[in-house]
Design goal:
single chain; about 425 residues; alpha+beta; Beta Polymerase, domain 2; Immunoglobulin-like; seven-stranded mixed sheet; four-stranded antiparallel sheet
Length: about 425
Amino acid sequence: MAKQKDFDSFLSNIEPSATTVSYISSVQYNLRDYLSNHTTYKSVHVQTFLSGSYAKHTSIRPKLNDGKRDVDIVVETSYSDEDSSCDVLQELFDVLKEKSIYASAKLQKHSVGIEMQGIDIDVVPVIRSEDGTIFCIGSNDVDEWILTDPKGHIKWSSEVNANNNNKYKPLVKMLKWWRRTNCPDNKKFPKGLALEKIIADHLPTSDMNTENHLIGTMQNIVSTYKEDYVDKGIMPPVFDPCLVENDLLSDYQFADFSSFILLLNEHLELVAQDGATNDAWRTIFGKEFPQDEQKASASLLTKTADTEQFIEQMFPVEIRFNLKIDCNVTQDGWRPFTLLRYLSGGKLLRHNKNLDFYIAQCSVPEPYLIYWKVRNVGEVAERKNQLRGQINKTDSSHQQEHTNFYGPHFVECYIVKNGVCVARDRIDVPIGVN
């Protein structure tokens, strides 16, 4: 059986960093401010709010080199169902294209998609339903309005979590990561609200520890769907928690759903055969799940070319305090700027810049120890044999670096007090080609 602290560390590893959350909050604020103050659009703009996993606090950080974060932003307009949904989408698209940082905007079926540094944004225009209680989402290929309830989904998720001793949302994050790690490229496993509803419908008693709660949920899902549906070739329905007539699996194929259930069952059999060990969970979730302590110690002695270290291998991790890092960027002939503000504009860093990473906020009472980790990722870093990734005790609130070569990089800071890592933060450092 894996220890509870290993599951806590796993969750810490897969959750978005405070830097990421701050960046997304900044992107949303800037977009809201732009639309609400636009010369013409402000007359139809009512409010803008985050939706989806970031609003529900069930988001996970992307794996390195595995695409971008998906962010959903809802824009309530003052239009009604008598207005054309195609026209409403087109207007939002045209307004967003006017601003240079939204130049990548493209029309999608129900939204305007925007690619920015590190994130893919879906900006969804909505109107109030006829009775004014929920929203309607437009369609770009069929001129119609469809009921949706993003705020209802946020409330539902919070209620399920509260009714299950706050164990629902961590479970959603773990199974989202399981899907991310295990879904083949040619398959479409349930995701988003569909996956969240499947999990919510199959929660065991909440008085279990995290490991047994996870296993119990997986067992309940397999028990419900394998024999009565998958084995009989029947596609089950999964109904929206707020709009009960909406089948969340209507766009999924039976072959994909069957693969989803059979792989869950295969991983349950692995746990039953090998035991709920760290090795078994690392097979299921990937290397983000910690090794057991003995193997972790051995791995530190045997690493050669790739010298990345993980804080979980050095200290127990119990995140109890807040930590936020930022970075001052300077270069001769250029005006200094901070990295988080710069990245919120969807830009890449260029070469030959000096980076001064620093602790911007820390709620840990002194005294404490400070550790820094700088990790270079990608083909260029591998070719130059500069992956780095060692964790160094500096006890300094600053870490000096330089933008030397193209690729994704990140810097992490850890606060260690009384032999325990009690706070951590991470900032991504995307460096462009020139």
